[in-house]
Design a protein that fits this description.
The protein has helices spanning 66-86, 135-148, 157-175, 218-239, 253-266, 274-289, 294-305, and strands at residues 5-11, 17-25, 28-30, 32-33, 40-44, 54-55, 57-58, 62-63, 98-104, 111-113, 118-121, 180-181, 196-197, 241-243, 246-248. It has 308 residues and is of the alpha+beta class. Strands 4, 5, 6, 9, 10 and 11 form a six-stranded mixed beta sheet that branches. Strand 2 and strand 3 (28-30) form a beta hairpin. Helix 1 (66-86) packs across helix 2 (135-148). The longest helix is centred in the last third of the chain and has 22 residues, at 218-239. The protein binds the ligand O=C(O)[C@H](CCc1ccccc1)CC1(C(=O)N[C@@H](Cc2c[nH]c3ccccc23)C(=O)O)CCCC1 and zinc ion. The site of zinc ion has 4 residues, from helix 2 and helix 3.
Length: 308
């Protein structure tokens, strides 16, 4: 069939130049990547709130909508991560078309997966800049889609905190820049801070041990708070360290993320709680690396270190 994809260029939110896979039809180009699964399409909501909004087009394939450039490029990078590392074809494993919308709402200080697509606000420029400007955030949002098609963890209480943690863990690992989440978009005028830290969750008011978990009802039972406990376990398994008197020998990000991905795909269910996640992750490590492996030991110790 006629391959009419094109390679465009664009400027990202942070002023960098990125190459983009687009589609040409006639004399116009669309932010439509037909080379990845059934496609990646990037839209603008034009600062209103109807979705998906308008598919972005351009006359010369040189893209200047910075939030759209980052959303399109980072969705492609996330697709490539799942395909190249786990041989997973898009969110559902069957090439599911990925729709992404930028410029949602007015100065909207958030981003989300709505069960069908990913959506990014522009931020207010003070608390946040455009949410698509951070690869770990785009990876986080798309991972909610992967979770929906795998463990389908409920979005409340402990299952919800697992949902959040796995989204942070995959997003952070897709970027593999540091142990922070959202550092490229959070408080653009203050360097070095972030929305969350996987290495030290308490830095941003998340617990790093089970006994400190939040048990109230805010934020669907603290899904963005208690995720810190699981994030910390992942960090310890990957990087190693001593926490609450327990020493973990790190196995590296690559092995750690393979174990967590396998846990998500093969063991977790919609109502899995933290104790079940511990058992499942240890089992996934044994499946992948052996019953008495250093990897299984690292997972066991990491969960013990966070009080599970
Ligand atoms: O995907 C998620 O888990 C978050 C989705 C939040 C949401 C849920 C339902 C409808 C609308 C928005 C979005 C992100 C998040 O963690 N949001 C947190 C932190 C946050 C973002 N903007 C805020 C403004 C005020 C307070 C907290 C926040 C939250 O919504 O709690 C993930 C990565 C970055 C943004
Ligand atoms: Zn999330």
């Amino acid at each position: 069939d006629i391959i009419n994809f094109a390679t465009g260029t664009g400027t990202g939110v942070l002023g960098d130049t990125k190459t983009l896979t687009t589609t040409q039809s006639g004399s116009t180009y669309q932010l439509q990547d037909t080379t990845r699964g059934k496609g990646i399409l990037t839209y603008t909501a034009n600062n209103r709130s109807s979705l998906p909004g308008t598919l972005l087009t351009d006359s010369d394939n040189v893209w200047t909508d910075r939030a759209a450039v980052d959303a399109h490029a980072y969705a492609a990078a996330t697709y490539d991560f799942y395909k190249n590392k786990f041989n997973r074809n898009s969110l559902d494993g069957n090439g599911l078309l990925i729709r992404s919308t930028v410029h949602y709402g007015s100065n909207y200080n958030n981003a989300f997966w709505n069960g069908a697509q990913i959506v990014f606000g522009d931020g207010d420029g003070s608390l946040f800049r455009s949410f698509s400007a951070d690869l770990d955030v785009v990876g986080h949002e798309l991972t909610h889609g992967v979770i929906e098609y795998t463990a389908n963890l409920e979005y409340r209480n402990e299952p919800g905190a697992l949902n959040e943690a796995f989204a942070d863990i995959m997003g952070n690992t897709i970027e593999s820049k540091n142990w922070l989440l959202g550092d490229d978009i959070y408080t653009p005028n203050i360097p070095g801070d972030a929305l969350r830290s996987l290495s030290n969750p308490t830095l941003y008011n998340q617990p790093d041990k089970y006994s400190d978990r939040y048990t109230g009802s805010a934020d669907n039972g603290g899904v963005h708070t208690n995720s810190g406990i699981i994030n910390k376990a992942y960090y310890l398994a990957a990087q190693g360290g001593t926490h609450n008197g327990v020493t973990v020998s790190g196995i590296g990000r690559d092995k750690a993320v393979r174990i967590f991905y396998s846990t998500l795909v093969n063991y977790l269910t919609p109502t899995s709680k933290f104790a079940a996640a511990k058992t499942a992750t240890i089992q996934a490590a044994k499946d992948l690396y052996g019953a008495n492996s250093a990897e299984a030991t690292a997972i066991t110790k990491a969960y013990q270190a966070v009080g599970l």
